[in-house]
């Protein structure tokens, strides 16, 4: 097999692994990757405003609001108004949201990052350099991306037969 085919096959495997992880999360846990990341962020940081969540997740506030709407409909988060300033809203994880986190698999980007930590600094530098070249070859230098692994539009729900989104 030609080296070009091996490279293309490896890129396709990365894309496919991301897609399969997302589909498994949707079918087994009825969550999208961004929804799980929202829940995990709340579990880690405690109550947050939608704006601070958007900044933390590298998403627009409108996208985060849509994600939170779907999570709230499922009872996984709740919005609470600040008693001293009713204009302020904070997002709180519910017991159902906490349970969803415990049942869901660890996000792919976290597992990948943990794997990278086992490599030497030189190996990580090599990967970074080669991937930067791949990005350039794919003419994707101007494509904005958050440091997490999720397929497609981060705000779009993955469709499943029983998906409430």
Automatic annotation (TrEMBL):
<dbReference type="InterPro" id="IPR011991">
    <property type="entry name" value="ArsR-like_HTH"/>
</dbReference>
<feature type="region of interest" description="Disordered">
    <location>
        <begin position="79"/>
        <end position="100"/>
    </location>
</feature>
<dbReference type="InterPro" id="IPR000835">
    <property type="entry name" value="HTH_MarR-typ"/>
</dbReference>
<keyword id="KW-0805">Transcription regulation</keyword>
<dbReference type="InterPro" id="IPR039422">
    <property type="entry name" value="MarR/SlyA-like"/>
</dbReference>
<keyword id="KW-0238">DNA-binding</keyword>
<keyword id="KW-0804">Transcription</keyword>
<dbReference type="InterPro" id="IPR036390">
    <property type="entry name" value="WH_DNA-bd_sf"/>
</dbReference>
<feature type="compositionally biased region" description="Basic and acidic residues">
    <location>
        <begin position="79"/>
        <end position="88"/>
    </location>
</feature>
<dbReference type="InterPro" id="IPR036388">
    <property type="entry name" value="WH-like_DNA-bd_sf"/>
</dbReference>
<dbReference type="Pfam" id="PF01047">
    <property type="entry name" value="MarR"/>
</dbReference>
<dbReference type="GO" id="GO:0003700">
    <property type="term" value="F:DNA-binding transcription factor activity"/>
</dbReference>
<protein>
    <submittedName>
        <fullName>MarR family transcriptional regulator</fullName>
    </submittedName>
</protein>
<dbReference type="InterPro" id="IPR023187">
    <property type="entry name" value="Tscrpt_reg_MarR-type_CS"/>
</dbReference>
<dbReference type="GO" id="GO:0003677">
    <property type="term" value="F:DNA binding"/>
</dbReference>
<feature type="domain" description="HTH marR-type">
    <location>
        <begin position="4"/>
        <end position="136"/>
    </location>
</feature>
<dbReference type="GO" id="GO:0006950">
    <property type="term" value="P:response to stress"/>
</dbReference>
């Amino acid at each position: 097999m030609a080296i070009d085919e091996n490279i293309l096959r490896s890129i396709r495997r990365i894309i496919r692994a991301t897609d399969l992880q997302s589909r498994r999360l949707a079918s087994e846990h009825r969550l999208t990757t961004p929804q799980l990341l929202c829940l995990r962020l709340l579990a880690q940081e405690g109550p947050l405003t939608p704006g601070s969540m958007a900044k933390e997740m590298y998403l627009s506030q409108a996208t985060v609001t849509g994600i939170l709407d779907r999570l709230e409909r499922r009872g996984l988060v709740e919005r609470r108004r600040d008693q001293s300033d009713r204009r302020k809203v904070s997002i709180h994880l519910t017991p159902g949201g906490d349970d969803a986190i415990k049942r869901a698999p660890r996000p792919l980007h976290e597992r990948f990052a943990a794997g990278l930590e086992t490599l030497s600094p030189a190996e990580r530098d090599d990967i970074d350099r080669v991937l930067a070249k791949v990005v350039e070859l794919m003419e994707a230098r101007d494509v904005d991306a958050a440091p997490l692994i999720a397929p497609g539009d981060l705000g779009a729900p993955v469709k499943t037969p029983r998906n409430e989104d």
